[in-house]
Amino acid sequence: MMKKHICILLAAACILFLFTGCQNKEEEISVSSLSSETNQETEENKELIFAGNKITEINPLLDTCEGLSDLIFSGLLKHSKDGSPVADLAESYAFDEETLTYTFQLKEGIMWHDGELFTADDVVFTYNLLTQDRNLDSDLECNYTDIESVKPAGPYTVEIKFKKYNASMLNYFTIGILPVHLLEGDNMNTTAFNQAPVGTGRYRFVSWDNSSGEIRLERNEYYYDKVPEIETVIYRMANNDQEKAEMLKNKEADLASIGPVTSEQLKDSSLYEHLECQSAEYCFISFSYLSDFWENNADSMTVLNYAADKGAIVKNILKNSGSAAFSPIQYHSFGGNKKADIYSYDLDTFAKKMEKLGWKKSDDGFYVRNGQKFTIRIQVLSSEDTQVDIANMISLQLKNAGIDMQVVLVDEISQDSETDGFLTTFAVPFEPDELYRKFTSKGSSNITGYSNSRIDTLLNAGRHEKDTQKRKQIYQNFETAYAKNPGEIPIAYMNANYAAVNGLKGIDTDRMFSGHACDIMWNIENWTIVK
Question: Is CATH 3.10.150.10 correct for 28-71+201-279+496-529?
Fold first, then answer.
């Protein structure tokens, strides 16, 4: 399914960083005390500092932690190198087609990071949250709507029964499991656990220093699989790519996720290794049907695709570290239907279609219809340098075409009635059914009000089709149907870029990434670092 990409590693100089830690109790959340006597040589060779984006919580059910939860939590299954689901907390599993029931035999003797035993009760608790907790504010809920019941069949056996066959469920069994003994009765959206998580994964949470924006993890010495070589991982938060670059230059980080512009600036330096990796991260502008402007002018959404010069964005903003987009599953083995690539940058066609829609240019060069100027306000995360640059270039392109697109910088994308959409990213690296929660009318990730009965029918059929070839055709049909009425402007696929110090070995980037900063750590148990 994946398209392999070879990452080029350039020679780099060694970086030394020593984490010191006398913190105010109000500023630091800690679940274990740190030894005051540290062997400097060991720490220099066993500590990794990662510079990433800001996060506010770590909980796999909330999906807002840049992939950091994958280091702390484990699922029944996990994604292998090629993206296929394989056993993790589960020793084995079987599916009964007659009863539509998955039976998982769990590994015995696994401990939570606080020393409690992991059992079937934890699995039942987690999946009941996903299927029964009406207060859970999670984009992932739609992935589990076909589950009828989850029950233990012994301390290390779980039975998950379905209402109907669902072809995508193995992918969703990779979600991290939560500890019932710590969370029963808590509100998942607000629990203090989200800032002091306890899992069963490769690394255990140690502390979260709010003043410095650092999260400290230490390896799980009792991990049930390969124990990582690197003892400590420090996740250091940055406001933007320039801050990450400064951390690298000042020897305050060993590895950083960066945008293509910053990557280009660092690429020729002898101090860093540059890693460019293929990603399913899809950048687009999504329009909100909930806004007053689009309520009156929804017929004029699609035409904007003719006024966006995607090639210029790939060249000038992405520095050719990516490609022009026409579909949200363009790089999936079930996607990439060229018949869905129906828009090209063509201002003549754009002008003709605008005239046909009844828009006319006023003296200031912007289109007007029925006394209303074509002005749209688009949200963009201020912390995402590349996305801000893309939004500004799209704004300029649309201005040249007669559209007033105003960029609104925000800390968090929201359903804001005063804006008309947002520029963001979305990824479908492994399972095409990820589309369901975003593009169906009642999808748990659909915050724009997009509704299309044809799309609903196709995506519902896709998740329930057993035959692989028929399923692929369904998603190919989705691409062409969605292209005709997209409710968005597909812009580009953005490769993942990182900068690393010399001495960091074992990184495997021959995998499709998803746009999370910590994607690169998927095989961290095989890494070594010498500083």
Answer: no
> For 365, left (φ over 0), alpha (ψ -120 to 50), or beta?
left
pLDDT > 70 fraction of the chain, expressed in percent and rounded: 91
The rounded distance, in Å, linking the Cα atoms of 266 and 260 is: 10
d(CA 204, CA 31): 9
Distance (Å, whole) CA 58 – CA 63: 8
Q: Give the CATH H-level superfamily of domain 74-183.
A: Dipeptide-binding Protein; Domain 1 (3.90.76.10)
- State in Å, rounded, how far the first CA of the chain is from the last one: 36
Model confidence, pTM: 0.89
Radius of gyration for the chain, computed over Cα atoms and rounded to the nearest angstrom:
24
Single out the residue of 420, 418, 458, 421 nearest to residue 439, CA to CA: 458
Average pLDDT over residues 390-410: 98
* Separation of alpha carbons 347 and 433, rounded Å: 35
3-state secondary structure of 86: strand
CATH topology match: 74-183 vs 281-494: no
pLDDT attached to residue 67: 84
Q: Are 194 and 217 in contact (CB under 8 A)?
A: no
Cβ atoms 220, 202 nearer than 8 A? yes
Q: At 436, phi and psi to the nearest 5? A: -60, -45
- pLDDT tens for 448-484 read 999 999 999 999 999 999 999 999 999 999 999 999 9
281-494 folds as Dipeptide-binding Protein; domain 3 (3.10.105)
- Domain residue ranges of the chain, discontinuous segments joined by +: 28-71+201-279+496-529, 74-183, 281-494
